[in-house]
Model the fold of this input.
Amino acid sequence: IPMSSYHDKWYTRIFSDPKIVEELLRSFVHEEFIEELDFSSLKKLNTKFVPVSGNSRHADIVYEIKSDGQSAYIYLFLEFQSTVDRFMALRMNRYLLEFYQENQRLNGEKHLNPPFPVLIYNGDTKWNAPTSLRELFYKSSVPEKYIPDFSYFKIAINEIPKRELVKIRNAVSAIFYVENSTPEEIKANRKELVSLLSSVIKDEGARIVDAIFERMRKTQKIDKKVSVIKSVEDLVEVTGMWETAVKRHEKQILEKGIEKGIERGIERGIERGIEKGIEKTQKENALKLIEKGMDNSFIHEITGLSLKEIRALRKEKKKV
Done:
């Protein structure tokens, strides 16, 4: 399964749980109307019937919820592209209009239930796209009342301080903590992560913690099966196993690469071939570790490349 498809499916599965959506809204959406929502009425809708025109993207998750007896729609749009889409407001607005058009055709209502569109972004790049459709239009003499407007609420995971996530101490904050951390940071802050996940186990059970570790293993490409987490004791054991697995995986990458480089040199029958093979492998391994978020000192220690060479590799990678 392509990684982008895995991201979509994992997040869709997680946020198909009404309790998780309630935590998301209560903890990360600071709008007064949230307190007026009747979360006991929260119901996920089937959106597969909605036609998608052109290149517009199907909404990931839509919920219906009551507020003062009136229905509203909570629309979660999950974004995993590596680059920021400046026209996200246009994309989201187009989908929402299609959703309403089909909904109105099926139900025949004279009025539309209000929406609350939420963007959840998990990329590394800072999200700097306009959150309002009107910001995308050129300034003109056309009266504003004739210019379409639409706004979405942005939750950019990489903008949330880890200290805030640790204080919140629920399943969504734990998910965002992991998403907002490099493997190196997770290892360095293992005790903090264990403490956070322990609160999740005590309050909500171990299912969500199992899902978080499933994602950590997948995104770090570590093929390591561990026992199911049922308690805080299991959690401590599994985090230790995961940390060991990460170290083992990094070492295997290096060893396989060096071995491959040496074999190439032997085939050429000259000593320079071995040196070039090792040098190429060192750079390949350094690039892989850069992708994993490792810092320059760690990459230098593992690959043997100089800090100057590593910095040059980072610059080359940014240009690609």
The mean pLDDT is 79. The longest helix spans residues 232-268. The radius of gyration is 24 Å.
